[in-house]
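Memo to structure team: turn this sequence into structure tokens by end of day. - J.P.
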Amino acid sequence: MSTDRPQPRRPEEPKISLLRNPVSLIGAAIAATSLATIAFLFFVNFISVRPSPYIGVLGFMVAPAFLILGLLLIPLGMLLERWRRRKQKPGVIPRFPKLDLNIPAQRTHLLFSLASLRVRADERRGQLPSLRVHRLGAVLRATLPHHHAT
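Reply from structure team:
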């Protein structure tokens, strides 16, 4: 019988999300507030007997601009946080995110994103996107590993 005990593991540093930074949190607050404002002004415009044009301007032009601003601040804050972390620990965080297409989940996410972009481009050209979406299923079936029942 061996008296060697396994050494206790040192607890790893908890991974803190890149969303946990002031710029992203302010962007999320602006986006959430703008979305609530849009919903409220849409409701007021809907139930009003005589809708005011100012409510329309605020609800359909100004508030969506703030919504877009808030949504843009979220990835900007994430990017700034990533740069800050890379400066603090230069060797730990790689320069670019890792993309390994041998991992099925990453491959599926990439293919879905590319197919979504393709569908959107087809819609802008006035083509029917359903033809491209149908091809997406064939692409995913061809690239994902097959599970055979035994």
